[in-house]
Amino acid sequence: MSEQSADLPAGVDTRHGIELDLGRGERRGYPEAVYCEGKTADQVGRIARLVAEAHDESCEGTGSGVTLFTRARPEHAAAILAELPDAYLDERARLLAWPPMPPEPTGGLVVVAAAGTSDQPVALEAAHTARFLGREVESVDDVGIAGVHRTLARVDLLRSAAAIVVVAGMDGALPGLIAGLVPAPVVAVPTSVGYGAAFEGIAALLTMLNACAPGVAVVNIDNGYGAGHMAAQIARHAPPPTG
Amino acid sequence: MSEQSADLPAGVDTRHGIELDLGRGERRGYPEAVYCEGKTADQVGRIARLVAEAHDESCEGTGSGVTLFTRARPEHAAAILAELPDAYLDERARLLAWPPMPPEPTGGLVVVAAAGTSDQPVALEAAHTARFLGREVESVDDVGIAGVHRTLARVDLLRSAAAIVVVAGMDGALPGLIAGLVPAPVVAVPTSVGYGAAFEGIAALLTMLNACAPGVAVVNIDNGYGAGHMAAQIARHAPPPTG
Amino acid sequence: MSEQSADLPAGVDTRHGIELDLGRGERRGYPEAVYCEGKTADQVGRIARLVAEAHDESCEGTGSGVTLFTRARPEHAAAILAELPDAYLDERARLLAWPPMPPEPTGGLVVVAAAGTSDQPVALEAAHTARFLGREVESVDDVGIAGVHRTLARVDLLRSAAAIVVVAGMDGALPGLIAGLVPAPVVAVPTSVGYGAAFEGIAALLTMLNACAPGVAVVNIDNGYGAGHMAAQIARHAPPPTG
Amino acid sequence: MSEQSADLPAGVDTRHGIELDLGRGERRGYPEAVYCEGKTADQVGRIARLVAEAHDESCEGTGSGVTLFTRARPEHAAAILAELPDAYLDERARLLAWPPMPPEPTGGLVVVAAAGTSDQPVALEAAHTARFLGREVESVDDVGIAGVHRTLARVDLLRSAAAIVVVAGMDGALPGLIAGLVPAPVVAVPTSVGYGAAFEGIAALLTMLNACAPGVAVVNIDNGYGAGHMAAQIARHAPPPTG
Amino acid sequence: MSEQSADLPAGVDTRHGIELDLGRGERRGYPEAVYCEGKTADQVGRIARLVAEAHDESCEGTGSGVTLFTRARPEHAAAILAELPDAYLDERARLLAWPPMPPEPTGGLVVVAAAGTSDQPVALEAAHTARFLGREVESVDDVGIAGVHRTLARVDLLRSAAAIVVVAGMDGALPGLIAGLVPAPVVAVPTSVGYGAAFEGIAALLTMLNACAPGVAVVNIDNGYGAGHMAAQIARHAPPPTG
Amino acid sequence: MSEQSADLPAGVDTRHGIELDLGRGERRGYPEAVYCEGKTADQVGRIARLVAEAHDESCEGTGSGVTLFTRARPEHAAAILAELPDAYLDERARLLAWPPMPPEPTGGLVVVAAAGTSDQPVALEAAHTARFLGREVESVDDVGIAGVHRTLARVDLLRSAAAIVVVAGMDGALPGLIAGLVPAPVVAVPTSVGYGAAFEGIAALLTMLNACAPGVAVVNIDNGYGAGHMAAQIARHAPPPTG
Amino acid sequence: MSEQSADLPAGVDTRHGIELDLGRGERRGYPEAVYCEGKTADQVGRIARLVAEAHDESCEGTGSGVTLFTRARPEHAAAILAELPDAYLDERARLLAWPPMPPEPTGGLVVVAAAGTSDQPVALEAAHTARFLGREVESVDDVGIAGVHRTLARVDLLRSAAAIVVVAGMDGALPGLIAGLVPAPVVAVPTSVGYGAAFEGIAALLTMLNACAPGVAVVNIDNGYGAGHMAAQIARHAPPPTG
Amino acid sequence: MSEQSADLPAGVDTRHGIELDLGRGERRGYPEAVYCEGKTADQVGRIARLVAEAHDESCEGTGSGVTLFTRARPEHAAAILAELPDAYLDERARLLAWPPMPPEPTGGLVVVAAAGTSDQPVALEAAHTARFLGREVESVDDVGIAGVHRTLARVDLLRSAAAIVVVAGMDGALPGLIAGLVPAPVVAVPTSVGYGAAFEGIAALLTMLNACAPGVAVVNIDNGYGAGHMAAQIARHAPPPTG
User: CA of C32: which chain A residue's CA is closest?
Assistant: First the structure.
C-alpha cells in the first residue's frame, strides 16, 4: 500500500460525491460535502486545505463551489477553521460551509419542520444543506402531533413549499400528518431522540416508512444532510415562492 | 396425568380470569371470557356446555353472568352454538357472547376509534367486550392521521368519553393524535394491518409506546378484547354520558 | 355502531387520501387510490360503484378523475370490473385504473429501474402510478449491481430523468449506484425478493437507508404505489424530456 | 429561520402537552410537564422563568397550575431552582414540581408497586406525577414475583386502588400477577433494569404486553411520568379511598 | 457421495445422540430418540426398521433399549407403526416410543407443570420423555400466573419434586413464580403459544431467561423433549418420592 | 415499457452472472446459473430455450458451457426438461444442469460436509455446483458436533481438501469445529433447519460469523449454490487430490 | 409512601430470594445472595449490616448462613468490607461471601468449564456460587471448540461430574460439544464476550438454545450466579466424587 | 481451580489457534495470533514473554514463527513492546507482529479494497495479516459504490488477484460490485462504520450476505484478521502475480 497516494483520495471522501471527472456538469450548483465523523481532525484539516487550493485554481468567479463539512465535532471545526478562517459554522448543526455564503436561491421553497426542541440540530443540518445547495428555506418548529393545532396553524406555509423536510423522533408521526395536508413531497428524517422503545430512532423510522399518506420517503436516522440534499433536488425545477 | 380432571380446568381457560373462588366479589359485572384460538372445537364445545350448566345452577336472575368467547373460528362458533343456540355472534369480530344481551350500561362512555377499514374486526372485538362488560359504547371509523380533519370533526364525541380505545395498524399514529385532544385516557391497540416494514404490527406498537402525548397505554397487537376490558374498567366509576 | 353509516366511510379508504372537502385544489391531477389488500371483494366492489357514481356527477369532461385500485387480488379485480367494465388492469402489478387512460403527461420524465425479474411487479405498480398521475415514464430492467456495465449502458436515459424510482430486493445496492451517476433524486423501493438473510426486504431496506450517495430516500418494502406517487410529485415542475 | 421566535416555542416543550389555547378547560387540574432530557440547562432555565411569569399573570389563587419537570439531570435541576427556588425536588426521581405542593387529592386511590430496589426511581416518578395531578397515592415496594407471599400480603391495599401502576424490570411478571388479583386496571411500566437478555427493558415490555390477565396496559420503558399521568386520569372519577 | 452409505447414517439422526460406540456406558437407561421433523416418512420408516433389527440382536432382556420418535406427523407415525406395530403413540404430543412400556422408575420425582391448555402438547412431550427415561412423573395443568391461587394450591406436590419442568407461552412468567416456591431446579420451556408481541415464543423465552428467582434454566422454544431429558438427568440421583 | 425487449433480459437473470460481453475470458470454466425461485415456469422455460440456442451457436466442442438452474420447483423442472430433455436433475437439491455432464475435474478437492439429514438438500446443491464448476467433490454426512467422534473419524479426508463447504442448521457449530482441524478455508452455509430460537437459520448464521477458529467465511442461509461456487473458486489453483 | 418501612425491604433484595418466613426449611444450605448492580454503595452497606446483625441473632453455630454479594463494583465491595471486614472477596468474579468459608461440600461434583480467558470472570462467579452452596467444584479452562483436542483431554473429569456449568462467548458452541460427551446435565452460560455479530452474547445464547445434544439448558447472558446455583441444586443428591 | 496452571493456557488464547501438538504440520507458514481485546495488559505481556521464549527454543532459523497480536489497545502494545522491543506495530490497525518482518511472499496476490477512509483500520488489519501469513498484498482505497468509476479504474489490478478482501461499512455494497467484475473469490468484511440504520455494521453484513454476484463470503463485523487469514489461505496455491 502506498501511503502517500492512499491518503489523498482517502481524505477526499467518496460518500458525499466529490466527483472530479464525472458528472460535474450534471451536478453544477450542488456543493460538495465532507463527512467528518469517521475522520481524524488531521485528515479533515488536510481536506480543508485541498478545498482551499482547488478553489483558488479552478472555481474563480463562480458561486457554485461551496463545500459543506458535516458532523463536525469541535476538533474538526477547529482544524477546518485553521485552513478556512472565514468558513460559516453552526455548532448546533455541527456543520461548516466555505465559502461562507449560500448562493442566490433558485427553484421552489424548501420548508423544514421539526417536531420538538431536540430535533433541531438535525433540522438545522437539513436547512443549511438545502440553503447552500441553492434553495430558499423556511423553518417551522414544535409542530408535533400531540398539539395538532400548531401544525394546522402553519398549513399555508407548508402548502407553499415545493419540498418539505420533516424531522421527528419518538413516535415519528409528523411526516404522515403533514403529507396528508400538502401537495409537495415530504422527505422524512427520523431522529434518535427518545428513550426506551424509541430504540435510537427505529420507532420513528418504522412509523415514517408506514405513513398512511402517500408522498413520504425516508432517509437514514439523523441524516439531516441527506434530507436537505434530496429536498434541494426536488425543489430545483419548481417555481420560486410567491410570498 | 389424569385426563378427566385435566380437561375441565383446561377447558376453563385461566387466561381470561375465570375465578371461581377468589375475587368474585371484586369483579362482579365483568363477564368471563374463553380464548378459543389455542383450543380444539371439541374443547371449546365442552366449555360452552359447562357454561350453560353453571348458569342454570348459580346465576339465575342476574344479568352479570355473561360469558365471552373470543378469537372463535367458524368451527369454534359452530361448537358453541350447538350448546348455546341463542348465543350472540359477530363473525367479523370472531366473538360470541351468552347470554346474548349485554347488561344495562353503567359508568361512563367508552369510545372505540378505528383508523381504517382493516382495523374494524379488532375494533369490534373491543367494542363488544366493553358493551358486555356493562358500558355504553360509541364507535368512530376511518379517522386516520392522513385525513386529520376527520378526527377533528369527531372531537366533541371523543371529549365526552370516559375511556377511549384507539385501534390502528400501519403507522399507528392515531392514539397520540387523539390523546392530545381529549381529557380521557387512551387505550391503544396496534393491529397487524400493513405490510413490509409494518412487521405484523410492530411498527404501530412502537409508535404507540412512543406517543408524544401523555395518557396513552398500549395492549398487545390485535388484542381488542384486552383493550375493551381495560376501557370498561377505566370508565366504571365515571358519570354516564349526558347526550 | 351503526353498520350502515360505518360501511360507507370504511369503503372510502383514508389511506390513499380520498379527500372530498379538503386539499382538493392542491392535489388536482393526482388520481385517488384504493388499497384493496385489507378489504373484502364485496367492500371493494361497493367502492368501485361509488367511484362510478361520483364520476358521473362531478368530474365530467376532465381527465383528472382517475382512480387507482392497488394490491388487487383476482377477486378484487373481478368485483371492480363488474362495476367498471372498461377499467385498465395489469395483473402482474395487481393494479386497476379507471377511467382506463392516463392523462396527457406533463412535467419531467420518471424513470423506473428494476434490479431483477422478480422486482418487476413492484416496478410496474410504480410505473403505472406515475403514469396515471400524469408523468411520462420509462422503464429499465435488469440493471443489477452484479452486472454494472448494464447500468452504465443506460446512463444517458437515467440522466434525462427528473425523478428515478429504483426497485431492488436482495442486497438492495442499485439505488446507491444510480444516485452516484445522476442529478435527479432517487426514490428507492426495497422488495421482499430474496431468501434467508434478505429477511423479507429488511436487508434491502437497510442498504438503501445507508446508501453512500446523497439523493436517495426510501419508501416501504414493496410499496410501488408510494414510490410512483412520490416520483410524480417530484417531477411535477420539471421540464418535459427533450427526447 | 428566525432564531428568536423559534426559541420560545422550542423551549415550551410540546411533548407534555403545554396547551395554551386549546383544551385548557378539558385538562384543568392536570399539571403541565417539561421533559428535560433533550434540552440544555439553559433552555430548561428559560422555560422555568416562563413558568414563573405565566403563573404570576394568570394562575393566581388556584392550586391547579403545578408544572412538573421530568428527567432532570443535576444541571437541569440547578437551572430550574435558580428561577424557582422553592420548587419541590426529588433527586432519585429526577423530578421537580412548582409550586411545590400537590393539590388536595380528589378521586380514587392510586397505588404504585415496584418489583425491586432498582425500579424505585421510575416508581417515584409515577407516584409524584399522580400526586401532583391530584390523586392520593400509596407505594408498595419489593413485591417481586420471586417472593409471591409479599404481594399476597398487600392484596387488601391493592384491591382498594382505583388504578395501579406496576413498575418492574428483568422478567416484568409482576403486573400480570397483580392484575389477576384486583378489580382495578393496571398500568404497567417496564424498566431498563436487568442485564443480558433483559435487553434494556425489552424483555419486561414483552412480558407485560403478553400478560395473561386482562386489565393490563403498558407504557414506554422507564416512563414513570406517563404511567402516573394515565393512573391519575383513570382514578379521576372513582370514589375516594375509605381507609 | 455414495448414496447407500449416506442414507443409513442420515437416517440415524445425530441430534438425539444415538451413540453406538462412545458413551454407551454413561448413558445406560436413557432411551435413544429420533427427531422426525426434518425427515421424510420413508426415512423415518427405515430408521424404525433399524431399531427393530438392532433390538432383536443386542438388547434382549433389558428394558433400557427404548427408542423415542419425537415431532412425528401422522405420516411419520404411520411409517413407524408399520415397522413397530405395538409402539406407544400419543398424537397430541406427536411422540412414539418402542418398546411401548417405560422402564420401572428410579430416582426422584419429575413434575411437569403447564400454564395453559395450549401448552399441553409440549408438556406431554416432556412428561413422556422423562417417563421413558426412567422417572416417575406427575403433571400439573392450568397453573398460570393470572390465577396464582391455583399454583399455591399445588405447592406441596411441587415441593416434593426433584426436578420440575414448567411449560408456558404468552408471558412465560410461571417458571419464575414456581422457582421462588420450591427447592428443586426448574427447567423452563417457552412455547410458541400466544399472538402479536408473543413473537412465536420469544417473549416467553426472554421472560424465563430473566426470571428473578434463581434455579431456572431454559431450553429452546417448544422443546419438550429437551426439557424432559434434562429433568430426568437432574432427578437421576434423587431419592424416590415418598408419597 | 416495451414488453418484448423487457422480457429477454428479464429472462436472462443477472443474479448469476450471465455475462455475454464482459468478463467471459476471466470466468471460463464456470457454468452460468439461472435462479428459478422468483420466476414463472414460463419465464424459466424461455431461458432454457435461449440456453439451447446459444449453445448450438457458440459453444460447440467445449465442455465449459454448462448452465445450472437452481431452486427449481417441479414446474420449473418440467419447463426446463421440455426444452432440454437430457438435462441432469437432482430433485432433492432442486438443481438442473445442461449439458448434463460435469467437466473433467481440475484443481484441488472440494469436501462438502453436512451436519444432519435435513441439511442434505443444501449440501447437495453445493456439491453439484462445485462439480459442474469443474472440481472433484467428496461428501461427508452426519458429522454434527453432538457426536464429535464422527467428525474426528473423517479428519484425514477433511485435511486433504483444498476447500471445504460445511452445511449446518440449528446451532451451526460444525464449521468452527472443522476449521480448527484443517489447513483449508471453510465456506460455511447456515441452513433454515431447526425450530424456535433457531429463527430460520439466524442462530446458525450468527454462530458461524462468530466461529472461534480463523479460516471460516459465511454465505447466505440455505445458499448451497453460493458456497459451492466459492469453494470451486478457492480450489481452482490447488493441486489435485493425491488419493 | 413511608420511606422508613420502604427502605428496609428495599435494601433486602428480593431477586436472590432472601426468604425470611417461607421456604426456609426447603432451602437450607443455600446461601442468600444480594445483587449489587442496581444499588448504591450505601444501600449495599446497609444490607451488609443487616446481614451481620441477623447472623449474630439467629444463625449461631451453623455454617449454612453464608450470604453472597454478586456483581459488586469496587465501591460496593468497600461498603461491604466496612461492615464485614473478614468477608471473602474475588475481584475478578466481583463476588463477596460472608462468613468467608464455604460449607463442607456435600452431593456430587460440579465442573465449571470456560471456553476462553475472557469468560473466566463469569466462570469464577459460577464456581464460587456452587462452592458456597455446598458443592465440590473443579474448573476447566480454555477448552474452546476451535481446539477440540483440549476438551477431549478432559473427558474423564467431565464425565465424573454430577452437573457441569459451561461458560462461553462468541460462537457459544462448547456446551453442545460437552453435552454430547457426558451423562450429566449441562447448564450453559452465554457471555457477552465477542464483537460485531456476537451482539453482546445473543449469538452464544442462540447457539446454546439450539444445541444439538440433549441435556443442555441455558441461563441469562453473563449469569454465573444463576448457573452456579442451578448446578448446585442439580448435584445436591448425587454421590460425592470418588477421586 | 488451580490458579497457576489455569493462567498459562488462559494466556495462550485458543481463539486464534495456537496449536502446539496438533495440526502443526498442516499449518506451517501461518503465524500464530493473540486476540488482545478481552485480556488485561498484564496477561498479554505474559503471553509476549512466552512467545519470546518459545521462539528462542524451537523456531530458530525459520521465518515461519511470526506471531500476530490483534486488537491491541495502547496499553496492550506497551506491554508487548516491553517484552518484544523490535515488534512491528501499526497503531491504526491495532496490530503487532513479531518477529517484525513478514516472510518472503508465496502464492497468489491478495488485494485488499476499502470503501472509505473510516474502513482503513480494518483493511490494514486484513492486509497485514495476509502479508505476515506469506502473501503479496496490494491495497485499494476509496472505491465506494457511489463513485463506481473509481472501482472500474482499478479493474485490472482486481482481476490479477487470487483472493480479494473487500472492506465496507454503511451500505456494504462494494463486495457485490467487485465480485461481478473478477474471477477471484471475495472475502467481504462489514465494518461498524456508519450511523442510524447502519446498526453498527448489521446493514453492511446483510447486504454482503445477499450479494447478487456469486463468489462472496462474509466474516464477522470488523474482523479484518479473519478476512486476511482466509484470503491468505485462498491464495496459497495460486500462481504468483505476474506484474
Answer: A214
**Interface residue of B110, B117, B143 to substitute, partner C, most C CBs within 10 Å:** B117
Model confidence over D140-166: pLDDT tens digits? 987 877 778 889 899 999 999 999 999
Take residue A26 and report the three cell numbers written for it: 450534471
Cβ distance B14 to E150 under 8 Å? yes
What is the SS3 assignment for A203? helix
Q: Cα(D206)–Cα(B189) distance, rounded to whole angstroms? A: 15
Query: Quick one: CA dihedral B18, B100, B234, B189, positive or negative?
Result: positive
pLDDT at E23: 38
H21 touches G: beta carbon within 8 Å: yes
Q: Which residues of C touch B127 (CB under 8 A)?
A: 1
Neighbours of chain D (3+ CB pairs under 8 A): A, B, E, G
Q: How far is C37 from chain B (nearest CA, A)?
A: 9
Cross-chain Cβ contact F116/E21 below 8 Å: no
Quote the ipTM score. 0.87
* Yes or no, beta carbons of F6 and C117 under 8 Å apart: no
Q: What is the DSSP string of E99-122?
A: SSSPPPP-SSEEEEEESSGGGHHH
* Tens of pLDDT, residues E88-146: 999 999 999 999 999 999 999 999 999 988 899 999 999 999 999 999 999 998 787 77
Q: What is the mean pLDDT of chain H?
A: 84
- Using the Cβ of B203 and the Cβ atoms of chain A, whether some distance falls under 8 Å is answered with yes
Q: Which residue has the cell 432427578?
A: E235
Residue B195 DSSP SS3: coil
> How many helices and strands, by DSSP H and E, does chain G display?
9, 9
Please, what is the Cα angle at C92 between C88 and C96, to 5 degrees? 25
Q: What number is the average pLDDT over the span A190-205?
A: 93
Average pLDDT over every residue of H63-75: 86
How many C-beta atoms surround the C-beta of residue C164 within 10 A? 31
Q: How far lies F178's CA from each of D192, F182, F183, in Å? A: 40, 7, 10
Lowest mean pLDDT among E19-33, E126-140, E195-209: E19-33
Cβ-defined contact of C207 to H203 (cutoff 8 Å): yes
Contact: C171, H170; criterion CB under 8 Å: no
* B152 to A147: CB separation less than 8 angstroms, yes or no: no
Residue H190 — φ and ψ, nearest 5°? -70, 145
- Give the side-chain half-sphere CA count within 13 A for D109: 18
Q: How many CB pairs under 8 A join B and C?
A: 67
Nearest C-alpha neighbor of A167 from the set D38, B115, D33: D38
Which regions of F65-211 does DSSP assign to beta strands (E)?
Answer: 67-70, 88-90, 95-98, 109-114, 136-141, 163-168, 186-190
- Whether G194 has its CB under 8 Å from any CB of chain E: the answer is no
Grid coordinates standing for B153? 370533526
Q: Quote the minimal CA–CA distance from D191 to chain E in Å.
A: 13
Residue of E nearest to B202 (CA): E197
- Calculate mean pLDDT across residues A172-201: 94
| Interchain CB distance below 8 Å, D116 and G192 | no
Q: Is the pLDDT of residue G21 over 50?
A: no
Q: Inform me whether the C-beta atom of residue A6 falls under 8 Å from chain H C-beta atoms.
A: yes
For residue F89, what are the contacts with CB-CB under 8 A and spacing of at least 6? F77, F81, F95, F96
Contacts of residue E108, defined as CB under 8 A and 6 or more positions apart, other chains included, come to E135, E161, E162, E163, E235, E236, E237, E238, E239, E240, E241, G237
DSSP assignment letter at C239:
P
For residue D21 the three cell numbers come to 389555547
C-alpha cell of residue G221:
447472558
Q: Which residue of A has its CA nearest to H171?
A: A15
Identify the pLDDT of residue D56. 64
